[in-house]
Task: structure prediction
Amino acid sequence: MSRSTIEGFRLAGVSTCVPSRIVSNQADDLGYDPAEVRKVVAMAGVRERRIVDPGVTSADLCFEAAEALLQKLGWERDSITGLIFVTQTPDYWLPSTSCVVHQWLGLSDQCAAFDLGLGCSGYPYGLYLAATMLKGGGHQRILVLHGETPSLFLDPTDHATTLLFSDAGSATAVETSPGGVGHFCLHTDGAGHTGLIVRGGCFRDRRPANPRDLSLQMDGAGVFNFTIKRVPVLVRDSLELAGLTVDQIDRFIFHQSNRFIMKHLMKKCGIPEERVPLILDDMGNSGGPSVPLTLARSLPAERAAPLQLMMLGYGVGLSWGSAVLSLDPQAALMHADYTGAVQRRGTEAAPAEAA
Result:
């Protein structure tokens, strides 16, 4: 069982960025049966979604989030010795997207940069890796970027996925801190890997005969059953590891899967609804980045006291995980729409332009 308690770090800040383009699920030009749309919207709780313009990627969204956060924190670029980019929608098969963003941010060649190919569970996994790097020595400050643009691998004829998923990017600043502590539970069930899958386009099937294999295929019933089986146990185990009760957690930050599933989980876990922020209505399901996005959108920027958080990611893989930690009042929380106008350092290339 992968259960770890790691001391000596804190979240210095979380910044998120979403596309400015808003797509309403009630729009007449989507081409779906209105009755089917009403059913999906009622269950999933997604009224509108944020969708990237052509030419904009996860890296662009995360770059703007990171640049804003570094400006807010006043971190010197040379003080950052780790960059973890969590995504399943990279700019290229190679090189790693982390290397590209490393250049845009103007980071030092003393900074380790690598990609982590996880989706819905990626945020607690990314925080765990950052914490272990800080604990292992040689690092003082690490950036964890988590971005996804699922709109780019959806089949527009599949309303079950197209009406659900949104795009988002995030940046989380993690640094050494004597009093900080985090508790992590991380799990995998690879037997369920076909539950959420894009079968074609990579090296198992580079050029699939069926174009549908280039788009996301989702076993909705299977993913639902996985979630209601695994997540309540994850919540219980995470509380046990941290030595806390439900009442001692100020906010449960769930991956924004869909409203029906989340309401079911709250009831099954005995969690009061007021402690589970929901941002699905106008942000949709952006995969793993929905966790930091929920943090930045739902918690007040100004806070008088620390908040005890449990952050939960679960889905594609199948993979699931949690991080329990305290967010101190000094930690910065920021959110903005993508502009494409932020200057990239270390390169003369212009920022991505919306088509």
